[in-house]
């Protein structure tokens, strides 16, 4: 061992609403754990670099790392909005750690939720993706954003619910408690709903998801149809990989666990609580990289 | 008859890509026909007022109308993006004609396509709506915009096609000539498609509709499924009113006629070419108002 042997590792989970990171020593003890600003590279690359550098500097100070110690710290950053290797490389080059891996948040979410188990994670919050791990291989479904994807997500549930409200208005679908409740929020005025639709962010649409979830839980036909459509999307991903043996399924994110009761009995038997968060996953991936460095 | 009896009428059809208008004398002779700038009130109310005033002034000059003649001209304006009576009233008050009716473009499209016939119009371009007329009653479906509606529209076909491309990428749907052709346009790079999705207007999405139409015509399974889904939406509107007797169906707009072969045989028997354009419809509604004024 010489003085460039890494003594610490850093894990970071980031997205549009902020980032969380931790630095650990080789024994796994957390030397620092902190939060930072928004880090969605697609939405704002410059702010992402700025916020991540500030958050990492704050954590390094808390952990007592000098610049050389930070440079040799092995890091894994999992960030929503990283769409390809070129973006990952650009971002990595702007960070103060030399031994750094940048990925989107699917590998870190899978590593955190599954731990060492094989199986699938359906991560469903404002957006959505499904990740399936078998040994070293990791396969992803979705994560493409609301315009052309994010099936089953909170934003997708909200958008789908408002689409149904307008079908109900036109007499093409049956009204329900859910559609009436949503119409009340728009004062029974299609112009208000349409104006909202013209400018609403995925986050604003996702604010309707709890109404859908609650209505469905109460037996509301429109709510149940929406939740079932989301669950069917998750099932289609699982069917594409044919989960087998004792492979597990973790439902994560603010919306994910609510799909449990709409899955097939066979799929439900695989449900397991996630072992950890995406930050835990980023830490475990950084730790594995550090162990690899030392073994080399 | 005194000197305030209207001697002329004006019809106007407007939307995001411009407006067309004509002024006729009481015998129906066109004194002026002209085009003007964009007139989607939802997108830009100030520009709409400005462009409409300029277009109407140009037409009045061409028709040889002095300010008093223009003020007494009976006008009907049918404009995309007029969502309610309040918007219509605000816009009407800003126009130089005193006897003016402002509606969205559904009544003018129906009046133009159907003439004096009863039946339905499926108007499908970048956006979509279905209008059904029976005698004096007019019922509308859709026209709510792409976020929560516009089923079967060019923008909806384009968005749906790109959504399918990403499902194909994930192995959740079967590739076809259509999806391969679209992927080539994005250099087989999901990040490019997602970036396009984040900022694309309905018009930009609608540019993919001709690919869908052509692929479907060649028997492409993905293309046919999309066209069938659009046709099914149109059928659902017709089913809600149960077309009967000799009620006709007109397919209008750049996309509408392409749905003919995906409709049921029963519905296809009702197909008739539109009798006229939305401008013709606006003129006929203005003419009817003028006749009503005179008869009063």
UniProtKB/TrEMBL annotation, chains A, B:
<keyword id="KW-0808">Transferase</keyword>
<feature type="domain" description="ATPase BadF/BadG/BcrA/BcrD type">
    <location>
        <begin position="10"/>
        <end position="255"/>
    </location>
</feature>
<keyword id="KW-0418">Kinase</keyword>
<dbReference type="GO" id="GO:0016301">
    <property type="term" value="F:kinase activity"/>
</dbReference>
<dbReference type="InterPro" id="IPR002731">
    <property type="entry name" value="ATPase_BadF"/>
</dbReference>
<dbReference type="InterPro" id="IPR052519">
    <property type="entry name" value="Euk-type_GlcNAc_Kinase"/>
</dbReference>
<dbReference type="Pfam" id="PF01869">
    <property type="entry name" value="BcrAD_BadFG"/>
</dbReference>
<dbReference type="InterPro" id="IPR043129">
    <property type="entry name" value="ATPase_NBD"/>
</dbReference>
<protein>
    <submittedName>
        <fullName>N-acetylglucosamine kinase</fullName>
    </submittedName>
</protein>
